[in-house]
Amino acid sequence: MMPEPEDLRQDALERLDERLEAFKTRHERKPYRWDDTSSAGYRLVAELIGGVLAGLGFGWLSDRFLGTSPWGLIIGVLLGAGVSVFAVVRTAGQMSDAAKKGVVAPSVADDDDEDEPGPSGRF
C-alpha cells in the first residue's frame, strides 16, 4: 500500500524544516562583543590613540576660535594623552579582574612538538 500524498508532503516539509534550521545555526552571525579577548589589544590601542587625537582636535579648535595658538594645541595633546593613559590603565585593570575570575582566552597548544623530527626524519 502506498503512503498518502498528504503524508508525503508532511514528511517533506518536516525534512525541509530540519534542513532550514541546520542551515540557520551554521550561518548565524554572532554579535560582536568588546570584551572579546581576541580584540583586547586593539581596544587598548584604540583608546590610547583616540584620546590623543581627541585632545589634538579640541586643542586645535581652541586655538582656532580663541586665538590661543599654540598653547591650546599643546595643552589639548597633553590632556588627551593623560586621559587616554588613564583609560588604558582602567581597561587593563578590568581585563585583569576578568582574567582572575576565570574569563580568559583559550590556551594555545604547546610548541614542544616542533622540536621532534617529522616522519621524514627532518625537523
What do you see in this structure?
The chain is mainly alpha-helical and 123 residues long. It has a domain at 52-100. It has helices at residues 5-27, 40-66, 71-100.
Would you kindly provide a brief summary of this structure?
With 123 residues, the chain is mostly helical.
Q: How can the largest sheet be summarized? A: none
Write the element-wise H/E pattern from the N-terminal end onward.
HHH
User: Average pLDDT value?
Assistant: 80
The rounded distance between the terminal residues' Cα atoms is 66 Å
Strand residue content: under 5%
Poorly predicted sequence stretches spanning 5 or more consecutive residues: none
List the helices and strands and how they pair.
Blueprint: H1 5-27, H2 40-66, H3 71-100
Helix pairs in contact: 2-3
Q: What keywords describe this structure?
A:
3 helices, about 120 residues, mainly alpha
